[in-house]
Amino acid sequence: MIKVAAFVFNAFGENSYVIYDESGEAILIDPGNYDADESAELTGFIEENGLKPVLVANTHAHVDHVLGVAFAKRKWGIPFALHEQDAVVLKSVRAYAPNYGFAAYDEPEINQWLVPGQPLKFGTSSLEVIFVPGHAPGHVAFYEAESKQLIAGDVLFRESIGRTDLPGGNHATLLRSIREKLFALPDDVKVFPGHGPSTTIGHEKKYNPFFRNSGPL
Questions:
Q1: What counts of helices (H) and strands (E) characterise the chain?
Q2: What is the DSSP letter of 84?
Q3: pLDDT digits (tens, 9 = 90+) for 165-217
Q4: Does residue 41 form part of some domain?
Q5: N or C: which end of the chain has fewer CB within 10 A?
Q6: Any residues with CB less than 8 A from the CB of 206 and at least 6 apart, and which?
Q7: Separation between Cα atoms, residue 124 and residue 126, nearest integer Å
Q8: Residue 194 CB partners (closer than 8 Å, separation 6+)
Q9: What's the rounded Cα separation, in Å, for the pair 102 and 133?
Q10: Residue 70 lies in a domain
């Protein structure tokens, strides 16, 4: 069964995750570490727990979620996986990162594509890749059925949803992704979002204002 370790990094308060199991192998999801202290925190956790990172996998490629990808690739010599439709989003980061104070941003090379239906396998575990566009064109979520844990990125937050006013965003598409893909999961699935506290699918179906008054789910 997988374990999920969460870290809050960079000026956007972005949630970065280390997913690992009893084998010691780990996948880094959305590493947003930017400065030396944040990178040291991430490295310290991995070393103290004797983990072996084998992959960086991103839910999407907005600046706050990719700041630490190049660092992770260099530090552990691991590949970077992203959905093909978010490649253009990643390419745009270099142009606007300095405007947000990230002048030292290092653009990572993509090594493999995330394909819905093709699980990410590591150690004795695997993560299902779920395609949930709307916040970003190639946004995905990662789900582990045995432990009922979902890394949702910026699609679904506690009693909120991701913004859709950025290039490639679409409000109707995002609502459909949540309703058809995420709300189809069991109510007791724990949701780890890209920002803010964790929640559950059941809680969001009942209390999320974007769905609460939209009829039966």
A1: 6, 14
A2: G
A3: 998 999 999 999 999 999 999 999 999 999 999 999 999 999 999 997 654 44
A4: yes
A5: N
A6: 212
A7: 7
A8: 14, 15, 30, 59, 65, 152, 153, 154, 157, 162
A9: 26
A10: yes
Number of neighbouring beta carbons within 10 Å of residue 115: 14
Beta bridge partners of 57: 29, 81
Residue 73 DSSP code: H
Paired tokens of 134: 């709307």
| Buried-exposed string 35-62: b where 16+ CB fall within 10 A, e elsewhere | eeebbebbeeebeeeebebbbbbbbbbb
Q: Is residue 27 part of a domain?
A: yes
Token pair listed for 215: 């009829």
138 within 8 A of 110, measured Cβ to Cβ = no
The pLDDT tens digits of the residues spanning 148-167 come to: 999 999 999 999 999 999 98
CA–CA distances in Å: residue 172 to residues 106, 119, 130, 162, 195? 33, 27, 18, 12, 21
Per DSSP bridges, beta strands 190-193 and 149-153 are parallel
Q: Which two tokens stand for residue 8?
A: 């809050």
| CATH code, domain with 74 | 3.60.15.10
For tokens 């290039």, what's the residue?
Answer: 167
* Residues sharing a CB contact under 8 Å with residue 6, sequence separation 6 or more, in sequence order: 15, 16, 17, 192
> Among 210, 139, 130, which Cα is nearest to 169's?
139
